[in-house]
Amino acid sequence: HPYGSARYGTEKSIKNMNINDLFNFINLWIRPDNATIFVVGDTTLDQIIPLLEKNFGKWKPGKTPAGKKHFPEIEIMAKSRVFLVDKPGSPQAAIIAGQSAPSGSDSRFFDIKAMNEILGGNFSSRLNMNLREDKGWAYGAWSALFEARGQGLYAFGASVQIDKTADAILEIQKEISDLRGKKPPTEDELALMRKNKILTLPGKFESSQALLGYIMDNDVKGRPYDYVESLPEKYQALNSELILKVAQDILRPDALTWIIVGDLDKIEQNIRNLNLGEVTIVDAEGKKIP
Fold first, then answer.
1. Global pTM?
2. Is 290 part of a structural domain of the chain?
3. Do 133 and 64 share a structural domain?
4. Where does the record place the Peptidase M16 C-terminal domain (predicted)?
5. Is residue 66 domain-shared with residue 85, that is, in the same domain?
6. Tens digits of per-residue pLDDT, 154-172?
7. Total number of domains in the chain
8. Closest Cα partner for 143 from 244, 250, 67?
9. How far is CA 183 from the centre of its chain?
10. Among 61, 165, 220, 277, which lies 20 to 30 A Cα-Cα from 96?
């Protein structure tokens, strides 16, 4: 799967790389029949086209076909699993839980992102208010959606004081579960989220670089370039029933992949006692340690 390899490589893969690997990558992927040019600035098509032709007009594709990426559907897990990474002497444990999320082009994605704001997407979110403000176990707790052309990643995490690792895991799981029904989103949470999102929209497009990133992102996701103009109306249309439905459809608190990094002498047994699922000890590259 395209997402199944280390983003920055591994020590072994980098050592084994040679100049031919780089040339092959360029010939396969960095080519005019596999490229889109975006331009943002005080210019017009009549002005920019001659410049593009001058600088890119002689750029020709290679003789081999352009590369194509395939994104096979990832099977949704039926139960949770746990991976532990030992970091002796660490005063904190880093906790991340993850699950697959729909593609960024999914019609529900706006609603999912709105739901995430309430769960862990900002300072006043439930996860942060619980683990930081109420419990005082962490400097911050969060959740985030990582959009992609294929299925994305929905992750939840915090770095907590080492003696509260197991308790924090339960609190994260509880907040995810509660949003699905026991504690549905409130009108106060929705109102705060709407206000923050709508009022911060203009500031997101103050620079040409920001506008360029927005246009490129819309192109990847297959959205219209004027998508931003619809956002205030979309935020105003959100309601608790819609967010609850999305939470019930998307969140899987009992089928998460947990990755915990910390001093295993202090946290391993307590984590095993939670009975979240199969526990595997791995190294920093995810390789199983016997």
1. 0.90
2. no
3. no
4. 17-195
5. no
6. 999 999 999 999 999 999 9
7. 2
8. 250
9. 24
10. 220
| Amino acid, res. 147 | E
Q: What is the pLDDT of residues 214-264, one digit of tens each?
A: 999 888 888 898 999 999 999 999 999 999 999 999 999 999 999 999 999
> What is the spatial distance between Cα 259 and Cα 169, in angstroms, rounded to a whole number?
11
Please report where in the chains the tokens 């980098």 appear, as a residue.
14
Q: Among candidates 276, 25, 48, which has minimal Cα distance to 169?
A: 276
Residue with tokens 């920093």: 284
Q: Which among 12, 41, 70 is the end of a domain?
A: 70
Task: Using 70 as the pLDDT threshold, list the residues of the chain that sit under it.
Answer: none
Give phi and psi for 286, each to the nearest 5: 85, 10
Verify that 137 and 275 share a domain, yes or no.
yes
Query: Does 51 reside within a domain?
Result: yes
Q: Which candidate, 226, 216, 224, places its Cα nearest to that of 36?
A: 216
Measured N-to-C along each axis, helices 109-119 and 240-250 cross at an angle, to the nearest 10 degrees, of 90
Q: Which helix (H) or strand (E) holds 51?
A: helix 45-56
User: Residue 230: CB partners within 8 Å, gap ≥ 6?
Assistant: none
Angle 257-261-265 from CA coordinates, rounded to 5°: 115
In a shared domain, residues 19 and 134: no
Q: Are residues 19 and 151 in the same domain?
A: no
